[in-house]
Structure formats: structure tokens, C-alpha cells
Amino acid sequence: MNEFALPRGIKVFERGWLSANNILFWSNDDVSIVDTGYVAHQEQTLSLVKKALKAEGLSKLDKIVNTHLHSDHCGGNAILANNFQSSIYVPANEFSTVYNWDENLLSFKNLGQHCPTFQCHHSLEPGKRILLGSYMWEVLAAPGHDPHSVLLYQEDHQLLISADALWEDGFGAIFPELDGEDGFEEVARTLDLIDQLKIKLVIPGHGKLFTDIKTSLAKARSRLDYLATDKARNARHAAKVLLKFRLLEWQSLELHLVHEWIKETPLMKAIAKELNQSINQLAEWLPPALTKAGGAKIDQNILINLD
């Protein structure tokens, strides 16, 4: 899965871009997983977990922990909890939203995505610590990509679970800016927080593990400057990210159905407004824009994914 030596009792499942990476922890006292992938991959997630547990002679999964509640990080919650009767931990500011399953406040409907309903049992409080396997991890607030996202930091081994706050070559789309929230400054503060930590190894939400934190932070700050100097640029980028994500699941879809999905997705309407376009204009612009960026092709009125 990766070339880096992790402490005993930690295994990373590097998944790709439709499903976030999953991190499994185990000891005699606790078995936990951080983030569970997208619903379209839920059976694969369950299989990966079962196989890893069997290899260690284990049959339980005590905790499911979500760094944030985008669908690619929590889509496997329900199937894992149903199989293992696990307790689910979510960021503190979203606990009541999940507990009451408020579709208007959860991100899934707004982003045009899906996530099976699940129950939550505990909250992740920034500044507090949580046991994952053999190790205590500090919970740190990391708003920006998502206003309620958290980082998990293991000081003794200098490990950081960065979710979508920092990847080797960037970070997740800054969606809060499109909902009228201050996403750019939040991303900057989160990057500054990461820069203050002593880190030997980062386990990101997507992509491979990495050790050159200074270079990744420099790339992230450059990317932030590029997006923050032009809100329309950020909006166009977010629109392409949202469509590419769904296309990873669809693989191919007739253009008229793609247009329907764009028109029905609430955040796309906010993006159209930011770009001073009608939603119909955005729906016509976006598929060709994604093809121009190399993420898809159009053949006989069908939008086809390109990896």
C-alpha cells in the first residue's frame, strides 16, 4: 500500500479519488478505522477491513472515526457499523446534524452526492485526544476544505492524518467560499497549524503517504494564492471537481443526464451565481470544460471518464 514504515498496528488502505484513504488501527485494547470511503465502494471497504482483521486474528472494530463528513470519507460507515456494531465518532460541530440526520445541513445533498444513513455516538473535540489502536492522537480543528474537518496528530511518532487539508500536491476544493463562508483564510490558518507541528510522515485523505512536508506546504500555499486571487477561478475549479467526482462513479453518462444532475445540485446553483451565469449556462459549459482539463471526453453525446 505504501513504502513507508508505520508503527506496529497501523495499516493504510490507499484507495484513490472516489474513496478516501482508510487507516486501520489495532491493539489488544482497541481496533479503529479512520474514514471509510464512498458508498459505491462500501463492499470493497468491508472486504479490506475483514481481511486485515483476520490476518491479525481479530474480529472486532470498536470505533469508526471520520475526519469530516464528505461522502468519500464516510460512505462506508453504515456497512461497517452494521457488521461490527462499531461506535461512530464525528467532528463535534456536526454531531447533532448527524444524530438528527438533517439533510439540509449535511453536505451530501448540497454536493449532489450520496451517503447511507448512519448513527453517531461520540464527537471529536478539537484539543482533546482519542485512542486509536495502541496510540493516543490529538484532535485538531482544520477548517477550510470543510468547515468542521479535523486533523489527527500522533506526537510520539510525529504522524499526521491530514484528511483533505493537505495532500502531497495540494488540498481539497474550497467549498465553503461558495456557500458564503470564509474558506480561503481558514485554509491558510490550517496550513500554518500543520507547519507548526513536528511531522515525519503525513497520511493524506487521498494519494500516497509523504514525508517532504515543507515542499507540500509550499505547493499548497501557492495553490491557495492562485485560487484566492480570483473567486471565479475557485468556483470553476470546484465545479469541475464535483463533476469529476460523480463521473468517477458513473464512468460514463449521457450528456442530457449530466446536465440534469448539474441543474439539480444545490452547490452548482451557487457556483453559477458566483460566475454570473444561469444554471443552464453552467450546465452547458461544465462538461466541455472538464474535457479541456483532461478529465473526460465526449463521444456521441456521452460524457466518459478519463483517469
- End-to-end gap: 20 Å
Helicity range: 25-40%
* Biggest beta-sheet profile: 6 strands, mixed
Globular, elongated, flat, extended or rod-shaped: what is the shape? Answer: globular
**What's the SSE pattern?**
EEEHEHHEHHEEEEEHEHHEHHHEE
Overall residue-averaged pLDDT value: 97
Q: Radius of gyration over alpha carbons?
A: 19 Å
Order of neighbouring strands in the sheet with most strands: 1-2-3-4-5-6
Spans of 5+ residues with little confidence (pLDDT < 50)? none
The percentage of residues in β strands lies in 15-25%
Return the structural class. Answer: alpha/beta
What is the β-strand count? 14
Number of helices: 11
Oligomeric description of these chains? single chain
Describe the overall structure.
There is one protein chain. This protein has helices spanning 42-55, 71-74, 77-84, 95-99, 107-111, 183-196, 213-228, 231-250, 255-264, 266-274, 279-292, and strands spanning 10-13, 22-26, 31-34, 63-65, 87-91, 122-124, 129-132, 135-141, 150-154, 159-163, 201-204, 252-254, 296-299, 302-305. It starts with 9 loop residues before the first strand and ends with a strand. The longest helix has 20 residues, at 231-250. 39% of the residues lie in helices and 20% in strands. It is α/β, with parallel strands linked by helices and 307 residues long. A six-stranded mixed sheet has the order 1-2-3-4-5-6, with helices on one face.
